[in-house]
Amino acid sequence: MSESKPLFDEAIQNLLESLKDEKDMTEKQQRIIASAIEIIAEKGFNGSSTSEIAKNAGVAEGTIFRHFKTKKELLYALVGPMLIKFASPLIMKDVIRIIESEAPAEDVLQSLYENRLDLITENLPRVKILMQEALFHPEIMDSILNNLARQGRALGDNFVTERIESGEFRPLPTNGITRAIFSTLLGYFVFSQAFPEEKGEDDVEVIIDILLNGIKERHGD
Amino acid sequence: MSESKPLFDEAIQNLLESLKDEKDMTEKQQRIIASAIEIIAEKGFNGSSTSEIAKNAGVAEGTIFRHFKTKKELLYALVGPMLIKFASPLIMKDVIRIIESEAPAEDVLQSLYENRLDLITENLPRVKILMQEALFHPEIMDSILNNLARQGRALGDNFVTERIESGEFRPLPTNGITRAIFSTLLGYFVFSQAFPEEKGEDDVEVIIDILLNGIKERHGD
Amino acid sequence: MSESKPLFDEAIQNLLESLKDEKDMTEKQQRIIASAIEIIAEKGFNGSSTSEIAKNAGVAEGTIFRHFKTKKELLYALVGPMLIKFASPLIMKDVIRIIESEAPAEDVLQSLYENRLDLITENLPRVKILMQEALFHPEIMDSILNNLARQGRALGDNFVTERIESGEFRPLPTNGITRAIFSTLLGYFVFSQAFPEEKGEDDVEVIIDILLNGIKERHGD
Amino acid sequence: MSESKPLFDEAIQNLLESLKDEKDMTEKQQRIIASAIEIIAEKGFNGSSTSEIAKNAGVAEGTIFRHFKTKKELLYALVGPMLIKFASPLIMKDVIRIIESEAPAEDVLQSLYENRLDLITENLPRVKILMQEALFHPEIMDSILNNLARQGRALGDNFVTERIESGEFRPLPTNGITRAIFSTLLGYFVFSQAFPEEKGEDDVEVIIDILLNGIKERHGD
DNA sequence: CATGAATGAGACTTCATTCAT
DNA sequence: GATGAATGAAGTCTCATTCAT
After folding, report:
1. What is the dihedral of CA C49, C55, C59, C64, to 10 degrees?
2. Does some domain include residue C1?
3. What is the pTM of this model?
4. What is the pLDDT along chain A (221 residues), one digit of tens a residue?
5. Which window residues (26-65, chain D) lie with Cβ within 7 Å of strand E?
6. Domain of A47: which CATH number?
7. By CA distance, what is D148's nearest residue in C?
8. At residue D198, what are phi and psi to the nearest 5 degrees?
9. In Å, how far are A130, A136, B22, B60, D44 from B34, measured between CA atoms?
10. Which residue segment(s) compose the domain that A124 sits in?
11. Cβ atoms of A181 and A152 closer than 8 Å
């Protein structure tokens, strides 16, 4: 990892704190969070009113502001835990172990995809919100870039470099391959979200097949 | 094209009409459109106020509503022309010609990517708005699905089927390959938008290289 | 008539002038007036927009303001002629002749009712507007009071006094009888307007019959 | 009563509910209602702004919309209770008792007038609003027709028919007499409202005297 | 802690009126 | 004279936020 001292800005600090809270939350707070996730995922942050969120959560409107100073802080409390889950040392160690294993690339990627996709599909509405609102809230975008993206990029580059050196991958630009891996994943995810009815059962496997087949070197194949 | 009678719903009808208008628009209308594109692309539809759009366009707020009955109609006037440009018969013919040519897949995809990417990058803010707001406005999503997606899917499947039959592509599921092509494109695009600073010069080529290498059959390679 | 010098205030002056105009009006002006009558009678003055009136008249919105300085002046131009028709010396002479005739009260009232009801039913929408808007525009109410009401009251009192003196009417308070005559008329009119479906053929005659039967002295009946 | 199942339409249902509320209203709600009555009676519904009503009530404009979803609902909350008071079974029983008594018509009508006039003069501004706005809001007019008018008409016709049969009233058309009674009352009321300065002390009595004298049979008089 | 009435800034929209063409 | 685009004040209504209970 080239960036060993990620700049944890204030936003992330708050997010970290709210993560800690999420386990100690009262039942009302959890209902508010759940309600907000549901509604904001459907209508967007600016399209959702605190009154609707409160009603849907079965609490008084004022109760929201007892737990979250502002509406925006409620948003942070939704997306923060996602960022932290993705980037948490605990989970990151798993990722690092997978990536640094000597297993064939197929297995590594497959494990990686599964690992990430589980996280994503379990938290789909939150991820949707995270991706949507990152476009409008620079501080969220910065958190993603400073944490997920940077780490992911570093890990990916390491992985790709090693595999190229070992002769498993074709000697294309490292950057390009890393980007290809990530953007294929991202594209697959966005595509399935946008056009759910088009989705087939074994699409993931076909796409990984194609991706790896495209990346890997052919040894006397 | 399997879908020879695309369902042009009411929304699209309105959009078509507004496209025609775009060339006859007065200077004020164009200033309003330009201002709205700028602001909505940055803050989202719900995050942008008509008063800000008006101020930025240098017109009175009331003037917006002389030209666009509601704020939503202004949105349609922004995204409509994009849909129409993408789906217009004129341009579609180009696409069909490229796809149905006998050229090697590399050239076909390269032309296709360039053709589409030009359209996209020339209208980047509009495309951003289109993609973002489609998530919150079902009628926009429907227009995309009923027009772009359906056509694209049909064209792609034809192309892939032919290439598999001719032995150029590996005999993977047609659907999967088509989806891989589109989602790779989409992923590349979303990725470059989300993390512009990460973008390299020849990324497109690397990605196409990988994609095709992954898809194509290896003949005694 | 006790009040021989009616106070013609400024409002009435304007109304008089607009009456003169009504005959010299261009076709557009007449279309505007006709359109305004139609729409304001249905929706009230404040509920009608100049743009709707213009559209309905087939003229540009600006054209209204070329002919009527303000929207209110347009209202005056609608109701003014009514006031003047009701109070104009020409027509007043007719009324005076009817009232001062020696004919039996039945004939006098019948003539009077017919004379007034013709005027009213021929100009029903204007009369509706006049009555409605008088409640909200004191200057219109003043015009009515200073002209119609005062004259009508004076004429009525004279008529009633004479008939009481001649022994045809019962010696009730003059005021009361006059008011009874007018308010019966008014009630009949308002009632028929409010509940048109309840209206019978010969209602007027029954009501006059009752009214006069109630007022007249019984000579050896 | 011929119409034993009055059609209580949705509007009336809402009105009924709002009546129940009127007693449980908070002080602010009552101030809003009082302020709205005052201002709308003077300027009409369309001529009154919610901001003026709020200012006059000493509350924030938003407070109005916390208690009444729309401006129109505020109007309903003003006129509804009137309709209900007039038509409420409790009061209707009084009316029926009066009308079905065997007392001479003078006493019946006098009691009736007093009973109704009290109700009206106690709620004069509301009644004014009710009558004015019924002209522009068909749903209000319908409520009046379906409730007050229908009931009143049925009661009146019964009363008149009985009195004609008993020989107390002249054998004129029942309809006509009923209409005469109501429209005389209405005319008297409208007249006094329109020209308050003309009003004398004992006008009601004179008018009832004339009305009844006109309706009643003369027995060897 | 929780409530929900109250707030007032600000959102979208309408409208009477003006003015260059 | 007629037009209709442009205006900006004012209208109705929503909303995040506060605070007394």
Report:
1. 0
2. no
3. 0.85
4. 444 334 445 555 555 555 555 666 788 888 999 999 999 999 999 999 999 999 999 999 999 999 999 999 999 999 888 888 777 777 777 788 888 888 888 888 888 877 777 788 888 899 999 989 999 999 888 888 887 888 888 888 888 898 888 888 888 888 888 888 888 888 888 877 777 766 666 677 788 888 888 877 765 54
5. 26-29, 59-63
6. 1.10.357.10
7. C195
8. -85, -5
9. 28, 19, 11, 15, 43
10. 7-213
11. no
Closest residue to F18 by CA to C1' distance? A62
Number of structural domains found in chain B: 1
A41 CA vs E8 C1’ separation (Å): 29
**Token duo for residue B87:** 């789906």
Which has the closest alpha carbon to B159: B90, B96, B92? B96
Nearest CA in chain C to D196: C145
Cα C19 versus chain centre, distance: 15
Show residues of chain B in contact with A203, CB under 8 Å: 175-176, 179
Question: Quick check: is A220 in a domain?
Answer: no
Hey, what amino acid is at D63?
Answer: T
Among the listed residues C201, C207, A180, the one whose alpha carbon sits nearest the alpha carbon of residue D183? C207
User: Tokens in use for D127?
Assistant: 């009644």
* Across B37-61, average pLDDT: 96
Residue B221 domain-assigned?
A: no
Task: Give C119-159 pLDDT, tens digit per residue.
Answer: 888 888 999 999 899 999 998 988 888 878 888 888 889 88
Does residue B220 fall inside a structural domain? Answer: no
Instruction: Tell me which residue in C149, C207, C214 faces D213 most closely, judged by beta carbons.
Output: C214
